[in-house]
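This section describes the prediction task in plain terms. A model, or a person checking by hand, is given the sequence of a single protein chain and must write out its three-dimensional structure as a string of tokens. No templates, partner chains or ligands are provided. The sample shown here is typical of the held-out split.
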Amino acid sequence: MMSSMPLIGVLMMTLMPMIDVFMMSLMPLIEVLMMSLMPLIEVLVMSLISLMSLEALMVYVLQVLMMSLSLVASQISYFPENANALLDAGLLHSLPHLFAYDYRHPLTPVAVQLLWNLLDFAAVATRVRGGRLSR
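The expected answer:
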């Protein structure tokens, strides 16, 4: 039992610098995560203060959700099969709602890219089907 004590001490002295380096490498990630969550935390706190700001919270949550869904749709629309599935699902009819914001809104370039991909693959599908778009 006495001989294992120095071994534990040696292990602790060996592992402690590695643990310190690991924890120090996590600090920037934790800081970035906290900074990205601060606007959401502020909106949540403000919504708890008054009922009127609950509407602002809902608008913010809906905008975040719309941005997330638009980013996903934009990324999957780079492949023809996915773009055709989005067209078949009727995404082209709901796309004008994404352009309801100002041209400087972060959602606008995502909506433009999504529309571009869908129209590009719709044109390919039209050419393949003999000039008739059967959607």
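For orientation: The chain has five helices and no strands.
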